[in-house]
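Lab manual, section 2.4: Encoding a predicted structure.

Procedure: take the sequence of the chain (331 residues), apply the prediction step described in section 2.3, and record the output as structure tokens. A sample record is shown.
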Amino acid sequence: MHRRSAKDETRPRPRLLYYAMYDPTAQDSAPKVRIRLLAEALAERADLTVIWGSRGQRLGPSLRWLRRQGMGSVDAVYVESSTSTPMPYDLALFAWARLRGRPLGIYFRDAYQLFRDLYPVTARRQHLADLAWRLTLPISRHLATVRFVPSAGLARVMGLAEALVLPPGTDPSLPNLGLGPDGPLVAAIAAPTPSADIRLLLQAMAIVRERHPDARLRLIGRFADTSKWPGWVEIMTSDRTGLAELLRPASACVIPRRRTPYTDLAVPIKLTDLLAFGKPIVATATDASRAFVEDPDAVLFVLDTPEDLAAGIVRVLDEPALAQTLADRAR
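Recorded output:
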């Protein structure tokens, strides 16, 4: 727990408890990056008291803050929820905020638990976690005076009436990388799951290499076993601070999401960073991504087939004017 403040202003600054259910110390995932960036932005506008951490990290700071400062020291509470279930002490803190008359804004991050046909679970522990999420969602929904969501679609499936859309953001100070040097290097910030996205990208790149035999794929992420992958795939790992240098030489950046009922609702957070980096982007055309990108010339959207994704990548590699337009309009 710590307190952040920025320059004094003539009018009283609001006092905000910023409660985040992740430890953002290591900037190695999208939610952690979001939490830190949002904290820095809020500190410019409010006197910020921050409590953040994993399940085992939040309880102690919360109890100490309640004992030493308490709800009387803040005007409102904002919560960055995790993708999993809030703990009982989280819900108790939220209820106490309401009892003390404090506005409570909760950011409902995700709802993949409602799409287990797409993201199946097998372990008993995972089934119990899903059940707990379904039981606690209505409680959080009821306690929140303001409900924030990444997209209107997610608000709809979670039953969040009058929700405010708070889409993914990024750091405006990120370097403008622009076009990469000559050479067909394609880059993607990727995760091992869902595996269908990776298969789509590998299949597309195999087609790209029929036209550009020297094309290479740089995957930035953590993958356990890549021993059977083609030699033209290189795996690199980095937290957010190293992304710029890994993406800089890329001629195109790709977001290969299979279109599903879930991906049509959720905006990939990596999209905002790639736009801020000013890279030519080829992305599969999910409803959420297309709605998020207002400029039709900022991203080359394609269908979610290997052939269409490959055709989009080839266009960026073969058409310098198109690549330059995408890079320019991304920023």
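Check your result against the sample. The domain at 2-165 is CATH 3.40.50 (Rossmann fold).
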